[in-house]
Amino acid sequence: MYGGCVHHDNGPLGSRTLDRAEWRRVASLKSNGYNAIRTSHNPVSPAFIDACDRLGMLVMEEAFDCWEEGKNTDDYHVVFDAWWQRDMTSMVLRDQNRPSIVMWSIGNEIPMRRTPAGVNLSHVLTDYVHQLDPGSGRAVTSAYPMVGNDADAFLAPLDVAGYNYSPDRYALDHERFPARVIVGTESFPASSYEMWSLAWQYSWVLGDFIWTSIDYIGESAIGHSTVSGDVDYLTGGEPFAWHISFCGSSPSV
Q1: Alpha-carbon distance 180 to 95, whole Å?
Q2: Which residues are the active-site residues?
Q3: Which of 210, 168, 163, 165 is nearest to 190 (CA)?
Q4: Residue 24 contacts by C-beta under 8 Å, 6 or more apart in sequence?
Q5: For residues 191 and 64, what is the distance between their CA atoms, to the nearest angstrom?
Q6: What is the pTM of this model?
Q7: Is the confidence at residue 228, as pLDDT, over 70?
Q8: DSSP 8-state class, residue 250
């Protein structure tokens, strides 16, 4: 998978879904050599999936950015217990007949991933997706950052282990768990060739998803230090007056 992560917004159009804009995003990525998209970190619109179906994109559709423990005071964790089953059901049943969908992701960098409750939910959500989409052969995954041995329990129920920024673990973890299938769910654009070289080298690594294939509004300037060092020459390291993340491989898309 020559993959790219795609965030929620349509650039200056904002977060609103417009069918033509969704098609343009997918077509632009296709023309730039991508064959797979990770919808980070939420389900995308029917128009986006339709474009992937028609243009021939593989899709990892992601459900959540957090579970019972949140990353912000007012994010999804506030309603997780009441809504996760309904939202997961809505995503899977809506798109289970779409040919572009090849993997379901139950979460991204889940804050409670190292806790017994988080490990339990990894099992519960994985089993629930299998019940919703039986016999399809689609894999269930979750993106885990900076993988170490302490990730084993969380990754155990997944069909494919999602590794964020952890290429140094590909060979080591294969020795420990030869049956573990891995996909690079996030890596920086500057390391694209290195990451895909590892996928070519290691048969148990399905591919890699660049963070991000299209730059996005929000998380302003998180990528500026990768170009200019710890202190940026325009902002002095402060986010103002940045508007985009400066973390995309295709800022002009």
Answers
A1: 26
A2: 109, 186
A3: 210
A4: none
A5: 26
A6: 0.91
A7: no
A8: -
